[in-house]
């Protein structure tokens, strides 16, 4: 019995072991990120640098293990992986000069088409080489498309939209973390009263099988927690931001007044009706879940727990950005345009 209690105590401690580091990273990093996003030039530079670093993680830590050995040995595969990194960041630089989202889409998918044609010229190549090329194309679709959407939100739509989007998605991640770990804690503390994942009992089995196959440590309770907190944040945040915005503008804080979108055909947060805010919270939460699951699948194929160690308590940049990359395109298409 003592050994059982000791093991239970260890499991409970492991659930909350990285929370202090996570909170410290958020408290230091979030204000810096919002400061950089508040200005058009600094947001372009910041997002391009983050795009580049995420690209490095994609071609190093996140390369599927079935192609890692061959990619390291063959110069051709090393070249194509690194060429993707240069080209994808170059696309971000081009997008900086074009604030029209349709133009950005044309640039992105034209580059994808060119890349596909170039890859097809290699002719008869083995399955592992094709896996490497597919990994490159996945990177284009996931990372480059996501970052181009983030650039559009922060530069064209303005700081208020960027702040709203980031807080809704990040709070969704936070809600998922809190709900998931609370469910595990209650199960460990009171196993007879609380199942390990209560919400999964209410979800169709084919959905849970897919989710748990991709990411066994995820819980449906966590997904529900993220969904609820995203919707709450999306519903109330515009009113809070509007109040803070007007208060600061009255104090002549022109720094934040630049957040107001002027002379552009873009809907402001104040023009979004409550029903649309709820829908936005739901869509961004689901987009964040898809991004999280997609990166989890990539990490499993690469036999990696995290994409890096840059952010204490979180892992790498891709571990922090995965949910935002999927959700960014949804936000641009549904809310802004």
Task: Give a structural overview.
Helix 3 packs antiparallel against helix 5. 77% of the residues lie in helices and 0% in strands. The radius of gyration is 21 Å and the shape is globular. The protein has helices at residues 2-16, 19-37, 40-59, 65-73, 75-96, 101-120, 127-157, 159-189, 205-214, 220-250, 254-257, 274-301, 317-336.
Relative strand content: under 5%
What is the number of helical segments per DSSP (H or I, 4+ residues)?
13
The SS-based structural class is mainly alpha
Radius of gyration: 21 Å
- What is the overall silhouette? globular
Kindly state the percentage of residues in helix.
over 70%
N- and C-termini, Cα separation: 61 Å
Mean pLDDT: 75
Number of DSSP strand runs: 0
H/E element order: HHHHHHHHHHHHH
Low-confidence stretches: 3-8, 251-263
**Largest beta sheet, briefly?**
none
Key words describing this protein structure:
mainly alpha; 13 helices; 337 residues; 77% helix; globular
Brief rundown of the structure:
By secondary structure, the protein is mostly helical.
SSE blueprint:
Blueprint: H1 2-16, H2 19-37, H3 40-59, H4 65-73, H5 75-96, H6 101-120, H7 127-157, H8 159-189, H9 205-214, H10 220-250, H11 254-257, H12 274-301, H13 317-336
Helix pairs in contact: 1-8, 3-5, 3-7, 4-5, 4-7, 5-7, 6-7, 7-8, 7-13, 8-10, 8-12, 8-13, 10-12, 12-13
